[in-house]
Specification:
Layout (H helix, E strand, L loop, with lengths): L3 E6 L2 E6 L8 E4 L4 E2 L16 E4 L2 E3 L10 E2 L5 E6 L2 E6 L10 E2 L11 E2 L10 E2 L7 H10 L4 H5 L2
Parallel strand pairs: 7-10
Antiparallel strand pairs: 1-2, 3-9, 4-6, 5-6, 8-9, 11-12
Bound molecules: zinc ion.
């Protein structure tokens, strides 16, 4: 827990790393109890922003943990990596201390969910949509990096 801090970022609160990570490092395990959408305390409000889909109608809801503060970026430094049914945040770039931790929400989007994006990156897509809304070369890069959950690959 000491490796991170929650503080103000470009759009609200964000999670920042206090240590360095190398590309390929596991940054943290995703927290929360697996639940169906309707069972989540924040359903349907804020459902998209604060839950991680881990399978067909299965989610990790907001649990009050620091991972609830991880923001989206269209050019992120992390991705969601699945191993034996456990979900992790994996560095897809070298991360230096004091950098905001982000991943591309479109690699893990809920059916029909969409949100405007103001991440400030040069490559910002303007809209966070489902996986197929990501440009092809970026999709292929995420797949190569192993940061697209299996249920997303299966449904696209
Ligand atoms: Zn963006």
């Amino acid at each position: 827990m000491l490796d991170f801090s929650v503080r103000k970022s470009r759009n609200g609160m964000g999670l920042f790393s206090n240590s360095n990570f190398k590309k390929g490092d596991i940054v943290m395990e995703a927290m929360g109890k697996p639940a169906m959408a309707e069972e989540l305390p924040n359903y349907p409000e804020m459902f998209g922003e604060y839950s991680l889909q881990i399978g067909e109608n299965m989610y990790l809801g907001a649990d009050g943990g620091i991972d609830d503060y991880i923001n989206h970026s269209c050019d992120p430094n992390c991705g969601i990596y699945e191993n034996n049914g456990t979900f992790y945040l994996k560095a897809i770039k070298d991360i230096s201390g004091d950098e905001e931790i982000t991943f591309d929400y479109s690699t893990d989007v809920k059916d029909g969910w969409e949100m405007e994006c103001d991440c400030g990156k040069k490559r910002c897509r303007g809209i966070i949509g489902n996986f197929s809304s990501i440009p092809k070369e970026t999709r292929e890069r995420y797949i190569r990096l192993g940061v697209v959950p299996k249920f997303v690959l299966d449904s696209n």
